[in-house]
Amino acid sequence: MQSATMSITKHKGLLELTRTLLLQQTMTSLLETLTQVVQGAGIADAVTLVLFDIQALDNKSERVSFYGIDPHHQPVSYEDETLLATGPVQALLSNPKIQVWRSDALHLHFPQLSALNLYPAFSGYCLVPLVASSGLLGGCEFTRQKATPFSEEDKNGLHELCMLAAIAVEQIQLRENAVFQQSQLRHERDDFRILVDITNAVLSKLDLDELTGEIANTIHHFFHINAISIVLCDADKDSEQASVYATHYIQTHVAEREQSRMTLGGSLEQQVMKSGEMLLTNARPSEEFRRDESTLFQLLWRDQTKTLCILPLRFGHKTLGVLKLAQCQPDNFNTANLRVLQQIAERIAIAVDNALAYQEIKSLKEKLQHENLYLTEQINSNNPDFSDIVGRSPSMSAVLKQVEIVAKSDCSVLILGETGTGKELIARAIHNLGDRRNQRMVKMNCAAMPAGLMESDLFGHEKGSFTGATAQRMGRFELADKGTLFLDEVGEIPIELQPKLLRILQEQEFERVGGNKLISVDVRMIAATNRDLRQMVADKEFRSDLYYRLNVFPIVIPPLRERPEDIPQLVKFLTYKIAKRMKRTIDSIPAQTLRLLSRMPWPGNVRELENVIERAVLLTRGTVLDLQLPELNYPLPMAHVVTPSVRESAPAPQLSDDDERERILLVLKETNGVVAGPRGAAQRLGLKRTTLLSRMKKLGIAAH
């Protein structure tokens, strides 16, 4: 056999061989070319490459990459291979010289090579170092099946060939590294664009609903994840409740959103919040859904294995909640994507913190606005305090004793009495004498509030809960937290709203209209009515359980006609107060006037008396109160209002249709067409509002 050098030179010229090797773009094509060369020269049957990791060489932690071609001419490659690194190639690190081994000696010395099963059957093995301008690259392995050992000429020829191959390997590595760097730069650029887009999208949203929707849309757009949830823990540190904002894409780019509440105890979300570390796990279809899991989640993936990625939302030293992502294709959560998602979660945490702060500021601002509105109402309505309750008759003294007894407790109080007897004054006295005197007393007249708006006014509403709900609004129960809520004309509350009122009286918690978050309050309830609630309960117009809950401590205010001894004192008090307001000076009230006023029936009670005094003060030209007698004429008998403790035994006399029509028209004229309310025609006629409207319709009287 000719020498190896002569054989190779004869097979292909040195320059052309160099050109051919340098034209190879991949390790596989280079191996194919080298195999053709050595097989043509009859030197070896197979060629493999074992290349060092440059960084591993620097750290002296040897790892190698293996490149070969299997018997079916398919490329074989392994990266970060540690067993191969402990083979013959390890000796090249200390002594880069050609190694020649027989098969049995090689496997005896390096038994791990047999376990790898990377080489076809061979009898001879030759390892030639690959040295280029950058240093030692690794080794090129040649195996032959024939028993003839590698000669010196063979080794010299292979050494010369590997000098050229080392240059080609170095060029391929540089090219692959450049491609990798370009790819990495493209990924970094794409990741940067994603982060910029998400940052711009989320930081501009201050409303939580809009923010969570924008986050879901952006993550779905860039990562094609179909289930995105944001779980935010409650502000109360001791609470294990959290709000869930879930978005699911059951169809491509068609989002289904829902809000719910969940208990954090023992959940994966709580685990991530405590550890502050990302969690990646699989959930099998055999596992039952938690009871707080999203309904949309169950519909989307009931029978599929899904991969969950839960990332903490931390800002500063605060843990706000988690970002929960779910997908059936686990390859969406690769190393590159997870790194970007962690950076996204950091930016989402900033946006959520901003939104929560904005929400709190907005809530406080609205609360201040509502407080200012209610306080203005109270000031303008001229509500006097306890000292303005005038009357020392036995019946009023008994009422004031009851007020002193109940004021120190927090039990519900039901104030009963005819219209105009001063039920609001008694309610304010109870508040002022109690432990909540330093807090607000919020009031609401249920008769003056339209039934459709009463629930929203009492309990508040969320944005978008109904047409016209353009912003979140606090209800009167929230405003009265730690204070007192006074519900006047409580008998006018619609029957369908009464269960919700009963619940807050029992549980001290409620939900806003359109919301699902339980709000806890500490409110002392005082209610008042001029209607017979017992009869309303019998007529199925008022819930019996609500009546008993309100009627814990009833206080019945006597009508003015039952305490005539208080009228002179009331007249003097009202005259002084009204004259001072009108900047008049009235220092005398005739005794005849006081006796006359004390004999009147006063169906309108103190309110009617005040109106009479106000007109008298207005018409007085001197310093002596001038009460004109026509003011005290009652053209029609006033119907007696039934109190809860007294019921009429005889029915009212029946009037003809013409007389009844004339009577109703006259009362409507006196009340300026007002039917309902404490000064309405129904009250003055002693009828229910619905009964009066029915009779008006029957008699052909149009309602205004």
TrEMBL record:
Single GO molecular-function term? Answer: lyase activity
Reading the lineage from the top rank, the first entry is Bacteria
Domain named Sigma-54 factor interaction is located at 389-618
Question: What are the UniProt keywords, alphabetically?
Answer: Activator, ATP-binding, DNA-binding, Lyase, Nucleotide-binding, Transcription, Transcription regulation, Two-component regulatory system
Q: Which gene encodes it?
A: flhA
In its UniProt record, which GO terms are filed under biological process? phosphorelay signal transduction system; regulation of DNA-templated transcription
Q: What are the leading ranks of the lineage?
A: Bacteria, Pseudomonadati, Pseudomonadota, Gammaproteobacteria, Enterobacterales
Q: What is this protein called?
A: Formate hydrogenlyase transcriptional activator FlhA
PROSITE patterns named among the record's database cross-references: SIGMA54_INTERACT_1 (PS00675), SIGMA54_INTERACT_2 (PS00676), SIGMA54_INTERACT_3 (PS00688), SIGMA54_INTERACT_4 (PS50045)
Q: Which NCBIfam families match?
A: PRK15429.1 (NF011958)
